[in-house]
Amino acid sequence: MQTKAKIFLFCCLTILCTFANIAKTQHQDIIQTYPKDYFRSPLDIPLQLSGTFGELRTNHFHAGIDCKTGGQQNLKLYAVAGGYVSRIKTSPRGYGNALYIDHPNGFTSVYAHLKSFSGHIGEYVERMQYDKQNFEIDEKVPPGLLYVTKNQVVARSGNTGSSAGPHLHFEIRDTHTEEALNPLLFGLKVADKVKPQINQLAIYQFKEGTEKYVKQKTITVKGASGKYSVSPKLIKLGSTRVGLGLKTYDKQTGVHHLNGIYSLKMYDNGQIVYAFRMERISFDETRYLNCHIDYATKKSGGGLMQKCFADLGNQLNIYNNVVNRGIIDLSDGTIHNITFEVEDVEKNQSTLSFMVQYDANASAGSFKEVNYAAKFNYNTDNIFENENLKVFMPYGALYDDLEFEYETKNPAAEANAYSQYHYLHDSKTPVQKYFDVSIKPTTLPYEMYDKAVIAYNTAGGRTKSVGGTWDGNFLKAESREFGKYFITIDKTPPSVKGINIYNGKNMSKNTQIIMSMTDNLSGIESYNAYIDDQWILMHYDQKSNRLRYYIDERCSRGSHVFKLVVKDERQNEKIYTAKFTR
């Protein structure tokens, strides 16, 4: 009886697992329906986009749409539906000034790069900043404290944070999961009768018996009006396993920007073997963009090539109908008919068709043999260490198994380096999670220990600090980049300059006090401004290195003393003072 019971239980579990897998596949293939008439546009001008949802950006997928504002700031921004403000953030980087509104239908609207907040929202923000004596706040607002109604002006458009120009970054999120959703699936109208364009095809060949691959060739794609081709139409390859990549963009009517596509499907002899759709993106997953694209090509200046096959450690949930990770098996020796279908949200479609076939006489790709220091597995923790270096890479930091390369060099005598140079693999290999780098100094004077940082050289040759804390005899920091690492010191105070103020200045005709602020290495940690020893709010824009105090009732007519105190992350301090009148 026990044996029959076990068999029955096993059968039930098998059936349940089968149905679960079927349900998962069906969920991936079905586009969720979203309310089409609930939200209005956040602007009162026709929507034109300089960026689409899911667009490929540096280290992330674009989580919203970028709405053009005609190169202007200060346009009225409207609540797209009724609800209440749930979060407010002000920052010199990223989204800059950002507003989050929860709606009763289970979605949250987000408005970013704002110049200012309107009405009682703006009053609340300023009160929080003065209470905390900090320009940078990230406040979760109690439910119901700041109600808004549909069509209410809640903010003004701007260019704050990491914005490269005036525009509105707009998002719709699932309030419960906080996943970003494609706003164009909610009925927002954008003029678009333009089909996506396909520019390049890339072919990657796998080394037999391994998961190592190289880009064998890049082929320029020809065509227009949705129909594209390559020459020759039959491509013969010397590997039995190949991956494909596509450089493709979307445009909207009347807009010159090359934006991101909505969906892509790849067929092998009529069967879908790889597909993705930009419907929803989790912020926990967004950095997996670095294995969705050909990262080495991007770092070499070759643009954004989307790989149409998945690395072993790729955990993105945008894919569906993926067979064998999207890798094409040519071992049967027959001709494989490959077709790509690329679409935007309005279902404007472009196609690319060609054929591939295995040919034993064709090149199988050039695989460089390297003298590696260790083998790292993508699905385990990995440790590499010697007497002067420790590297700990946690599980999930890598997208594929890695033959880890390492070498050291001694710095030149005049270099501002207090350890060996440690070359960790190469900067063209992407990393998902932070890993620990610990370096032992060689010539660091004891009195400079509190000024020491771990630095690395960027691809552009710039020295950048990743900070560091002492762990015994090692300085330890976190990073997500391979490259050249070493210990250096930062004993230089930040640079602070008055732009429109100086000692003895009559400011009676000025509406702002403007300062510039930069740091040479470790980065700005804090900045505090005072008038007559009373703290004042200065708005910080990191991309322009500007601090601005908008003169208000806290600065009355008469004589005053302005003071700005700036510290970097190694506690080097700069104080600027100026007497002025108004």
What is the gist of this entry?
The chain has 582 residues and is mainly beta.
What would you note in describing this structure?
- The protein has 582 residues and is mainly β.
- The chain has 5 domains: 1-30; 49-186, Glucose Permease (Domain IIA) (Distorted Sandwich); 197-358, no CATH class; 374-489, Chondroitinase Ac, Chain A, domain 3; 495-581, Immunoglobulin-like (Sandwich), CATH 2.60.40.1220.
- It contains 4 helices and 48 strands.
- The chain is globular.
Break the fold down into its secondary structure elements and pairings.
Blueprint: H1 2-29, E1 49-51, E2 56-57, E3 60-61, E4 65-68, E5 76-78, E6 83-90, E7 98-102, E8 107-112, E9 114-117, H2 119-132, E10 137-140, E11 147-148, E12 153-157, E13 167-174, E14 180-181, E15 197-206, E16 213-220, E17 222-224, E18 227-229, E19 234-237, E20 241-249, E21 263-268, E22 271-277, E23 280-281, H3 289-292, H4 295-299, E24 306-307, E25 328-329, E26 336-343, E27 349-358, E28 374-376, E29 382-385, E30 389-393, E31 402-404, E32 406-409, E33 421-424, E34 435-439, E35 452-457, E36 463-465, E37 469-471, E38 474-479, E39 483-489, E40 495-498, E41 505-506, E42 512-518, E43 524-531, E44 534-536, E45 539-541, E46 546-550, E47 559-568, E48 573-581
Parallel strand pairs: 18-27, 19-27, 41-48
Antiparallel strand pairs: 1-4, 2-3, 4-13, 5-12, 6-7, 6-10, 6-11, 7-8, 8-13, 9-12, 13-14, 14-23, 15-16, 15-20, 17-18, 20-24, 20-25, 21-22, 21-26, 26-27, 28-31, 29-30, 30-34, 32-33, 33-39, 34-38, 35-36, 35-39, 37-38, 40-42, 42-46, 43-44, 43-47, 45-46, 47-48
